[in-house]
Amino acid sequence: MGAMSRFGNDLYSGKRSFPFVGRRRLWFIIAALLVLGSVLVPLFRPIQFSIEFTGGSQFTVSGLSSPDQATATNAVSGVVPNAHVTVTTVGNSGVRVETDQLTDPQTLAVRSALAKAYDVQVNDVTTSFVGPSWGADVTRQSLWGLAIFLALTFVILALYFRTWKMSAAAIIGLVDVLVITVGIYALCGFEISPAAVIGFLTILAYSLYDTTVVFDKIRENTSQDGESAGRTFGESVNLAVNQTLVRSINTTVVAILPVGAILFIGAFLLGASTLSDISLSIFVGIIVAAYSTLFVAAPLFSLFRESEPKIAAHDKKVLQARERAVIAA
Q1: What is the distance between the alpha carbons of residues 261 and 167, in angstroms, rounded to a whole number?
Q2: Does residue 61 contact residue 125 with C-beta atoms inside 8 Å?
Q3: pLDDT in tens, 47-78
Q4: Can you give the pTM of this predicted structure?
């Protein structure tokens, strides 16, 4: 604990510093590669959307002693050979089967086949249907929700920090978080479901909170003590990021522990697959959000403002003063 306290104190005082701003070119290249890789993921592993988005038929078989997924796949294929079948385990005694849109006779036949395959009563197999129009509505509302969230975020941050450049840097950071999180999510082979979308919006809110805390410290450093401390604008931004680094790490660790417990214990070990969609998106998103605030949003804000005449003149004055001090020494 003492070592961690000294580490935090050294970061806050500037005795120790990580070059978040000084090496921003490297961080931007890494960020661009991560975004590009996430965008290219669907080319070799297409993104899978859940039945709520694509529409189709769903069957749930309950009361099973051994919920084998292959049994469901074989049963459906025996009735509808060309159907696309997705089977997931529900708890320890059930399976959920999702298929393409089936006709009424096909639905009845699949229901009977599942009951026979698992040796249960037909009443133990429930059916539901999601039409393509409903799935389109869900998609449209999800996109509208994302657009409204980003628009409100831009306006509120611009009003709070009194500069649109902080808003722009924060929004780019949020987009970076969203793209990379979706890319990792798709790479893991998980379906994008309404629960996953809720998870994506949740981590955007978390990323926004983390970015706002760091930006608030940046505003304090750059507006109050930049000149008196003899630092350039970029150095003041970098100091602010280092001063909030321990808080960012602690917040991230505290946030991912319960989500990780839900993901690995609840979803993977206990078979609660309904929790996997939202928990995976939040787990990955929290980690990516912490990275994006430190290595993308903050250095990007510094880049946006360093070319302003007033700030450029101040930085030049600080650097000239240092040169004179070196010569005098």
Answers
A1: 34
A2: yes
A3: 888 777 777 888 888 877 777 788 888 888 88
A4: 0.81
